[in-house]
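Risk register update: the risk of archive-format incompatibility is retired. Evidence:
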Amino acid sequence: MKITIQRLNADMINDYLMFFETIAKVDTSECGSCHCMFFHTDERAKEWIIRTNEQNKHDAALKIKKGELSGFLAYDGTVPVAWCNVNERSSYKFNKSRFCCFNDDKKVVAIVCFYILKDYRGKGISKMLLKHSIDYYRSGGYAYVEAYPSVNKIQSSENYHGPLSLFLKNGFSIVKEMEEVDDFGEFEKYYIVRLFYQ
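Archived output:
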């Protein structure tokens, strides 16, 4: 296994779409049909859930071309095996979900999703993606990096915001604990964690 990390760009659209098709076929996860578009649309959760795979696939390709969908793909050789959705916080549509962020008028990086194919979990790829994300934005004048790990998810496939332990082991601190009921009436507990650039 030879893992390399590349920042998403328009030349990688086919790799990106193939990765999410692999999630749907191999991992049989609902994340495959999402194409990591949840935080890039204006719909609330109940509206989002009726979107089709083809809608998300189409919109993801357009946003990649425009540079609006950003992040890092991890490759094993030439095959994409993991993904981290990271961008400037202001580029996301947080207002439609239970996730919140503070309006502190700072330039902030947000890490919203990870997905590691099942056969590649437990091999340190999440840590590689996280470190690439932190380092990439370090010189961009950002105040800090923010993430939103869930703490009541049992299955690794449900922990697509990244496990809390990953962030705490890599310099992040908890700034707020959130306990809310989502749009479907389900209890959700998560933290807002931050790593401040010095």
